[in-house]
Amino acid sequence: MSLDSPHYRLWRNARLATLAPESPGLGVVEQGAVACEGERIVFAGAEADVPAEVSAAADIVDCGGRWITPGLVDCHTHLVYAGDRATEFEQRLAGASYEEIARTGGGIAATVRAVRAADDDTLYAESLPRLHAMMAEGVTTVEIKSGYGLDLDNERKQLRVARRLGVENPVNVVTTFLGAHAWPPEVAPAARGQHLLHIREDMLPAIAREGLADAFDAFCETIAFSDESVAQLFVAAKRLGLPVKLHADQLSNQRGAALAARFDALSADHLEFAEAEGVIAMARAGTVAVLLPGAFYFLRELKVPPVLMLRQAGVKLAVATDCNPGTSPMTSLLLAMNMAATFFRLTVPECIAGVTREAARALGKQDEVGTLEAGKRCDLAIWDIEQPADLVYRIGGNPLYRRVWNGQ
Ligand code: DI6
Ligand code: FE
């Protein structure tokens, strides 16, 4: 082959779930093939329609009739942290509540201490196995939040480590500055106004300037930040060109869904306590609902997100692990899908779209990843399954056969 002729890779003899938005359901192609040139998909569809110049000049992989989906997208994680909270888990089993543990210096504050004490290399080394576990199940894009540093240097450190995970591993990392996750332990209640100002005037501009974050996020909750405080921070973030996301209505109704929609948030996440008004506002704004059944399960919550209402309003649904040491110590996006189906009654196509196309949308990356379509990055998950439902139905085990990232 001459140097100037394009070089293709072709995965043939496959069944595709393309998730292409114009096809119904999963966009299934029974006798399918995917081809890439470099890192981009140039063809995804029926094998009979593969252009002759592609099949003639391609490295060919026979998939043996296996299923190909887009590489999975975990669109809400806190995977960069140090230490764990297994002892708190035991305290909770002995009867302590999440709030009681938080009041005695545990909870988020315990992880903040561990993250502040860790240097970059330690934080990287502790986070890497979690990233590997996700990748082993077909994840090719992962969002990683800060929020356990809570001061400028330590938030920077978390985001730096998140970026480094993306540079040194075959995976796309999208970072989010969760500057308003919790009040820092050193900030007295009377000094909270000042700290808010500090996030707005110092931390946000520095992190935006340094290019460390792709979005801004906050935790709007009675035990965290009020809707007025979050609104102030959202104004500042958007002025700096950062899109926003929100931990909304997880433990109580804080009008978080409506707040997120008011700022055209990419996503509002959790939403157990969201109400009709917020849901309708989200639909209008195109804000994605990110459902996090791992936290729901681990906290033994009773109130499920208003899925029927979200669905009827036409809000797009995504599913993520919320991987974090306190409320969702989970790295399995496959398990998150099973939980979303079992607890929240999402359908199989909703679950699979929720970890591909809609998860990409929740990150603003819908033009780059999340479907098998020409022009997108060639991120594929090839599965040893009989039908797509197997990805949602099974608990445990890992049917991933091969993972392709950027055409490799
Ligand atoms: N919601 C949660 O469930 C986690 N953060 C958040 O905003 C809790 C994080 C933790 O307990 O460490
Ligand atoms: Fe979270």
Description:
- The chain is α/β, with parallel strands linked by helices and 408 residues long.
- The chain folds into two domains: 8-70 and 371-404, Roll (Urease, subunit C, domain 1), CATH 2.30.40.10; 72-362, Alpha-Beta Barrel (TIM Barrel), CATH 3.20.20.
- It has helices spanning 52-56, 86-93, 98-103, 108-117, 120-136, 152-168, 192-209, 227-239, 256-262, 276-285, 293-298, 307-313, 333-344, 348-354, 357-362, 389-393, and strands at 8-17, 28-37, 40-46, 58-62, 67-70, 72-74, 139-145, 172-180, 215-220, 244-248, 267-270, 288-291, 317-319, 380-383, 400-404.
- It has an eight-stranded parallel sheet.
- The longest helix has 18 residues, at 192-209.
- The model has no long low-confidence stretch (mean pLDDT 96).
- It binds 3-[(4S)-2,5-dioxoimidazolidin-4-yl]propanoic acid (DI6) and fe (iii) ion.
- Fe (iii) ion is lined by residues 76, 78, 247, 322, 324.
